[in-house]
Amino acid sequence: MKKVGVIGAGVMGVGVAQNLAQSGFNVRLVDVNEDILIHAKREIYNNARMHQFYTRGKESFDPDEVLSRIEGDLHMDVLSDCDFIIENVTEKWEVKKDIYPALDKICPESAVFAVNTSCISITKIGGLTRRPDRILGIHFMNPVPLKSTVEAIRGAYTSQETIDCAAGILAGMGKKYILVNDMPGFVSNRVLMLTINEAIWTVQDQVAPPEDVDRIFKECFGHTSGPLETGDLIGLDTILYSLEVLYESYQDPKFRACPLLRQMVSAGKCGRKSGQGFYQY
């Protein structure tokens, strides 16, 4: 499998497409907005240059060659000859649910669909298709090219063949995986979203400013970044959507989003991608 479809050219889609192209895969990158695709290619070129700096020259590739392996398009029909699809659209069921029945008609019966999600049920998505055994979750971490491991999620009907296929793609991208079972939030976000949300509550309750909240995690616990810095990196809108999915799934008040988080997202303060979150960028 040397041709992989990537749906969604946002922060995660850009990272996944870049990682694939750097690893020698040909990529079909699909989004509904031409401007987003143009911006995505510019980001991929710049990020590929920076990636060499961060890896201190251990990985050598030509950014122009990386970009040449990525073909952008506005229509999912171009994915008809792809045997592996990675979907990265926003973490909202209303958006994701329309994609999979369409993909099911377009792609070969053998194609595997990987859902890049942090919270949404893989089994539920599989139920939208005629191939629930060929659906799995792959929760990539941001920034994708710099992370060595992903959280892979087995749905109720995901076959071992599908997991083996995904393992091959991930190995080609230079990644290991940790396989977990399908419950909303899985492991990483079921824990992480609570941590970030509670950190936001401490800011709202004026226990400490954002800088000191993050310093406690970095200097006392040895974390490389604090929960508010992590929230800004992920995107505070994504944090909010994930909490809403978790609250709806478990009906547990511990997942209730902090009002300050809702206010910041309403104000467009979504973190790094918007230039302002708990910090200025």
TrEMBL record:
Pathway: Lipid metabolism; butanoate metabolism
InterPro entries: 3-OHacyl-CoA_DH (IPR022694), 3-OHacyl-CoA_DH_NAD-bd (IPR006176), 3HC_DH_C (IPR006108), 6-PGluconate_DH-like_C_sf (IPR008927), 6PGD_dom2 (IPR013328), NAD(P)-bd_dom_sf (IPR036291)
Residue intervals of the 3-hydroxyacyl-CoA dehydrogenase NAD binding domain: 3-182
Top-level taxon of the source organism: Bacteria
Keyword entries, A-Z: Oxidoreductase
Record domain 3-hydroxyacyl-CoA dehydrogenase C-terminal: where: 185-281
Keyword Electron transport: no
Signal sequence annotation: none
UniProt similarity note: Belongs to the 3-hydroxyacyl-CoA dehydrogenase family.
Protein name: 3-hydroxybutyryl-CoA dehydrogenase
Species in which this protein is naturally found: Paenibacillus borealis
